[in-house]
Amino acid sequence: xxxxxxxxxxxxxxxxxxxxxxxxxxxxxxxxxxxxxxxxxxxxxxxxxxxxxxxxxxxxxxxxxxxxxxxxxxxxxxxxxxxxxxxxxxxxxxxxxxxxxxxxxxxxxxxxxxxxxxxxxxxxxxxxxxxxxxxxxxxxxxxxxxxxxxxxxxxxxxxxxxxxxxxxxxxxxxxxxxxxxxxxxxxxxxxxxxxxxxxxxxxxxxxxxxxxxxxxxxxxxxxxxxxxxxxxxxxxxxxxxxxxxxxxxxxxxxxxxxxxxxxxxxxxxxxxxxxxxxxxxxxxxxxxxxxxxxxxxxxxxxxxxxxxxxxxxxxxxxxxxxxxxxxxxxxxxxxxxxxxxxxxxxxxxxxxxxxxxxxxxxxxxxxxxxxxxxxxxxxxxxxxxxxxxxxxxxxxxxxxxxxxxxxxxxxxxxxxxxxxxxxxxxxxxxxxxxxxxxxxxxxxxxxxxxx
Length: 451
Hints:
The chain has 15 helices and 20 strands. By secondary structure, it is α/β, with parallel strands linked by helices. The relative contact order is 0.08.
């Protein structure tokens, strides 16, 4: 672990526990900071708080009292999921100009290994996993961290100079950095999302673009040449910018006559890639560009692309039952993600959609109605999906739960159809997260098969 005096003798408030909060607090104490932990859950229902108190930390539970700030903190390290402007303590900290970081910055400050940083509205987990597997295939000693895998600051403490941290980064995490600088950054796409967290779309975009803000000319920024927001945001970086494109020949990664190229080198033909759909090809191009820039061998990249079937809950093929193929795309928590999934199919889709109602505009699904045989809708948004379907003469069945939705889809489907769970909504009305929702769907498909 790289030593830093950045936090020595600083008074630091860690807000929010769980894995990232505990890791941040322990690391800060090792870096000789004076740490106080604050978590909104009461002590009686908070085993994490009890654990940290047993280790000698001062822990304040049961809310975020404003008077905590009177202790004169030099810095706040915040759990990424806690909104900046919905917690009065954080709003007051912003007024007082107290720096607010996330543990990703701590990871960077102590890591001996360089970082590869990946961000996007959609596709970052698939792409992060692809890059990791490509580098692993070529024995380039990657570690995976961030939004997937282990907490970044834990991984970073164990990383050596010969390794590299392949890190998926969210806008929540990137709002809390000051000097974080990846050796290679990747901007896949930036569309509208998380407006219940961010003040507005511009704040969300700027948070994403923080990934490239500290890069220097000897570092690389791989970017989507077809995303106007990203292209316009390149003025924020001094990095060497390398494009990728699905539609044009560029000085980076691109498609030509059914083949994937990097610069002038043919990497692989599209037919040999197991991942299907333009959105996955976008992920592939980004991953190829990053891996080649890091020095990955082309044969290693090809081997991975010939076997990689996707990431769980992200257009994941589950199984075939009575000639009907079932796909789990529970990660689609917004309309754009569901649009992307629908693009991957030609027709004969039975769409399972619904969930937490965040008042997203559902009309973005209309251009894909010609591919859809019927919609089965559940959760809080079911009546909004039904209203949209009725207005455009689309068959639609309304149910309460995913269990019922899978049963109804099995009745509707005939051989050759695709049942696609792609909810276009968050899961929190009925599930703690999209992973639990997706796992439940997989179980329900297994039950269908075993009948």
